[in-house]
Design goal:
This protein is α+β, with helices and mostly antiparallel strands. 46% of the residues lie in helices and 16% in strands. The termini are close together.
Length: 838
């Protein structure tokens, strides 16, 4: 199958995959819309059923209503009875004093009121009107919860110039019930209404008794952090609103103004003077049940009370902000300084005066007239001479034309790959020009994929951020609110900025690769034998692609952290798949240059992996996991066969017949041959790789980890670690050396990966749960009062990837002047057989 046909088939596959993804998305959206419609319809029916009014009752407006006006006082309870012909209006007058730091709370209680004819309460102020009914009805899992007592605060705007101001407001109580309904009304002041910096406060809430407080920005303070904690896990909401009346302090209208979020026992909200220039109200509202926080309709305890502790701290100053930003740049600048120093000490290649003789070079050298050149690749010169002497002694009477020297045995891949022990010379028959062009295709394919993938991602997350800013719904994105520093329109700048390390170190790796590429070209220009007969064939296209992938990973990770959610987590992991695949391909290409995968084939596999990730967002159920595990294990079997037979095994309709013939021939030779592999090393390593992947598949089915994208990434990373470890062990087993520079990078990579995993495990968020449950994991800043554990993970993982790349770049430097016919080819771990599949 030629390349054009492959490209056409891959294009058709990609189109079908895109249509399938669109179809699944449409099904998911339709199901959500239907569920939402059904919920609304059921809710309306419940409301109509539970809140029905008697139609045969006489309208209160057809009767004469008497109004009693009472000149009321603060801190005094009034107990009366109302009916359809009698209502009460309480007239209050009070003085707002700047020094007293108080607000007013209105509380009305009635045990006699019922939902068919409730008591209506209306509070009229100069700039606001409050109204509610008794009993107050709030929906819970067990139906409608009734609250016979409701407490609401009066909107109190801050005093601007006057020290004290006289206010007046009216409290009206009425009902449409002809029977007398008793009630108790009172108005009392709330102390410590205006909150200052670093003041600890505690307040008790119920669903019918919300509370709110006021904060005014001190001079010179631009950003503050409101930290809220609780002793229990009852669901509640916190809202930050402008210093204007009315204040929305009920569950049904809390989301109309400002910014808000749900929480259970811990959260933080960063408030800037830019958005609230005169200060703000912050409102606490307890929920009747925990459905909005957990998604579960558990039966709550009746009339539960929630205790809340809160404090307001100043965020980092501008100087501290800039110090944290510039400090990170300084740390990564040290990497560039170290690279520059390394460049100075290794400014040129030191080529030995005398190179070790290469049998491959001798075979390709023109022979003298009348002589016989016997091309034996991968064997010692002594063995070759002895065979030549024996041949000349035993067949001196034969003519040279009567002897078949089988020169095709050294060029036919199906013959060469049947050798028990292979050398790099056996798998590098194609020219370096061909390999160089093939390797460069990875770079260009990667750039095209990155551009077309990253642009829609960037557009989507910017829209997410804009929606968050416009609606104030901070449940939309999963931030670590206790360590989220805004900048401009970005809510969480530090987690975006900390991805800079991927970009800077990816660029540095490209510079290192380019430098080695130039030095190699200079050496080959002066010694043309190096390119053809010595060392590992050097093709830097995959290295350039690895560095570029690291930079793109930084960009996409930053995009993900603009608004982290379950739906866009794939943006953070997609190029980790790419990096893992490129690393495995590079390790394989090192000693299998002729049979490495085509660039378009490798990216087709990655496209299928990304498609699985997209499907898992919508259909992550048991059936999907079973199908995925089946594909995973079948791929293990197919790729193991490809690896074992070095690409000479084909999957077609005749595969079962070939398997039968092999088993039958082995049986005729002796049943023990079934358990005696032809290539022992390959079989041993394939068994290890397959057992590992079977274990991963069983774990995926038994535990069903909710983060499917990370589970797939774990499969890639595990196989990459196995293959890298195996490559190093086999390198040492064949007597090869690992130079000091490679050892240095291996040690740094091991240390940084170990530290990075510690910070990765200690997560500050989790989108596997609801937003309120995720905030339970929120953590305070760990470094410079600016970066948390996940930022440190970004820094360390970027350094770890860089050191890992440098390990691969320098691992085979000891073989630079070793003849290729003496560099062995170890058998690959299972997963890497994917390069032979294509």
């Amino acid at each position: 199958m030629d390349i054009t046909t492959k490209i056409k088939l891959l294009s058709i596959t990609a189109l079908v995959a895109a249509l399938l993804g669109t179809y699944l998305a449409a099904i998911q959206i339709d199901s959500l819309a239907r569920a939402k419609y059904a919920f609304k319809r059921n809710s309306h029916s419940v409301v109509r059923k539970d809140l029905r009014y008697e139609t045969n009752s006489v309208s209160r407006y057809q009767q004469k209503v008497h109004t009693r006006v009472i000149d009321a006082k603060l801190n005094q309870k009034y107990s009366f009875a109302v009916n359809s012909t009698l209502e009460y209006i309480f007239q209050y007058s009070y003085t707002q004093d700047l020094l007293e730091n108080q607000a007013l709370s209105v509380q009305v209680t009635s045990q006699a009121a019922f939902r068919e004819n409730p008591i209506l309460v209306v509070v009229r102020q100069q700039k606001a009107v409050l109204s509610w009914q008794l009993p107050l009805l709030l929906e819970t899992a067990s139906g409608w919860q009734e609250y016979s007592s409701v407490s609401r605060q009066l909107c109190t705007e801050p005093l601007k110039h006057n020290v004290s101001v006289q206010h007046e407001f009216f409290l009206g109580v009425s009902t449409s019930d002809p029977k007398n309904l008793s009630f108790v009304a009172s108005v009392s002041p709330i102390a410590d209404f205006v909150v200052g910096l670093d003041e600890n406060h505690t307040v008790a809430l119920t669903a019918s008794e919300p509370k709110y407080y006021q904060f005014l920005f001190p001079e010179g303070v631009t950003n503050v952090l409101l930290t809220v904690t609780s002793d229990d896990d009852y669901c509640m909401s916190v809202s930050v609103q402008n210093l204007t009346c009315p204040v929305f302090d009920m569950d049904h209208d809390l989301k109309y103004d400002g910014i808000w979020q749900t929480l259970m026992n811990k959260t933080g909200m960063t408030i800037s003077r830019e958005r609230f220039p005169f200060g703000f109200f912050f409102v606490f509202v307890a929920k009747a049940d925990d459905y909005e926080c957990t998604g579960k309709r558990n039966r709550p305890p009746p009339l539960r009370q929630k205790t809340v502790h809160f404090v307001i701290h100043e965020k980092v100053s501008y100087i501290d902000f800039m110090a944290a930003v510039i400090g990170v740049l300084g740390i990564f600048a040290l990497f560039y300084v170290g690279a520059f120093v390394a460049f100075c000490f290794t400014c040129r290649n030191t080529i030995p005066d005398v190179l070790e003789p290469s049998l491959l070079e001798a075979r390709n050298r023109p022979s003298r007239y009348g002589s016989i050149s016997t091309p034996i690749v991968g064997q010692a010169p002594v063995v070759r001479d002895l065979e030549s002497e024996n041949l000349s002694r035993s067949s001196s009477s034969l003519d040279i034309t009567d002897i078949d020297l089988m020169p095709d045995a050294y060029s036919d891949k199906n013959v060469v790959r049947t050798k028990t022990f292979l050398f790099v010379a056996d798998l590098s028959h194609k020219g370096s020009r061909f390999h160089g062009k093939k390797s460069q295709l990875y770079m260009w394919n990667l750039l095209i994929v990155a551009v077309f993938y990253a642009l829609p991602v960037l557009q989507l997350v910017i829209i997410y951020q804009k929606v968050l800013n416009d609606t104030g719904d901070q449940d939309l994105c999963y931030f670590n609110f206790l360590c989220a520093h805004p900048l401009g329109d970005l809510t969480d700048f530090n987690h975006v900025y900390s991805n800079l390390g991927y970009v800077l170190l990816g660029l540095l790796f490209i510079i290192n690769t380019a430098r080695r590429d130039v030095l190699r070209r200079q050496a080959q220009a002066n010694h043309d034998r190096l390119e053809k007969f010595y060392g590992i064939p050097q093709h830097y296209g995959l290295f350039y692609a690895m560095g570029t992938a690291l930079m793109v990973e930084g960009v996409l990770s930053a995009c993900y952290h603009i608004c982290p959610t379950h739906a866009n987590y794939q943006f953070d992991t997609t190029f980790m798949y790419v990096i893992s695949m490129l690393c495995m391909l590079k390790i394989y290409q090192t000693r299998h240059p002729d049979i490495n995968a085509e660039a378009h084939a490798a990216f087709s596999v990655l496209a299928f992996v990304v498609l699985l990730g997209v499907v898992s967002v919508f259909e992550d159920n048991l059936a999907f996991r079973i199908i995925f595990s089946a594909i995973h294990l079948l791929a293990c079997v197919a790729l193991s066969a490809q690896v074992y037979y070095m690409g000479r095994w084909k999957l077609n309709l005749g595969v079962f017949k070939r398997i039968y013939v092999i088993f039958w021939n082995d049986f005729q030779a002796g049943p023990s041959n079934w358990f005696r592999p032809m290539y022992v090393d390959r079989m041993f390593l394939l068994v290890i790789g397959n057992l590992t992947n079977v274990g991963l598949a069983v774990y995926g089915l038994m535990e069903r980890p909710p983060d499917f994208a990370s589970y797939m990434l774990a499969i890639f990373i595990t196989n990459l670690m196995l293959y890298t470890l195996f490559y190093i062990i086999m390198k040492l087993r064949h007597g090869e050396k690992i130079l000091c520079q490679a050892v240095f990078y291996i040690c740094l990579a091991s240390l940084s990966w170990g530290a990075a995993m510690y910070f990765f495990i200690n997560k500050a968020i989790t989108w596997r749960k609801r937003a309120a449950e995720s905030r339970v994991f929120n953590q305070e800043c760990a470094i410079l009062n600016f970066y948390d554990f996940h930022d440190i993970w970004h820094f360390l993982s970027a350094a770890s990837l860089f050191f890992s790349f440098m390990t691969l770049l320098t691992l085979d430097d000891d073989l630079a002047y070793t003849p290729r016919d003496r560099i062995p080819v170890p058998a690959p771990i299972f997963f890497h057989g994917i390069v032979l599949w294509f």
